[in-house]
Write a structure and sequence with these properties.
This protein is an all-beta fold. It has a four-stranded antiparallel β-sheet, with no helix packed on it. The two termini are 20 Å apart.
Length: 83
């Protein structure tokens, strides 16, 4: 997860999605504002930002040969800044 002000980014690894929520002032209630999927996502587990781009690591939880699996970081435009 990544919290920026009242915007919460949630990596949903088993569904291969990124959910974006807008939190209320108390930070205890959120409203889904965006949900992003991408064919390059493969069990994403972490999230980082550089400028207007979000970067997600892919864990490949379901790989049958983890030692010989290529791991990658997937870059996507921030859905809040580029809807």
């Amino acid at each position: 997860m990544r919290l920026e002000g009242r915007t919460l980014y949630v990596v949903r690894n088993t569904s291969n999605k990124l959910a974006v929520l807008r939190l209320d002032r108390s930070g205890t209630v959120g409203r889904l504002t965006a949900e992003v999927s991408d064919p390059r996502f493969d069990a994403p587990t972490a999230l980082a930002r550089h400028g207007d781009t979000l970067y997600r690591t892919n864990a490949h939880f379901y790989s049958t040969d983890p030692a010989n699996t290529e791991y990658a970081i997937t870059a996507i435009p921030d859905p809040v800044r580029h809807p």
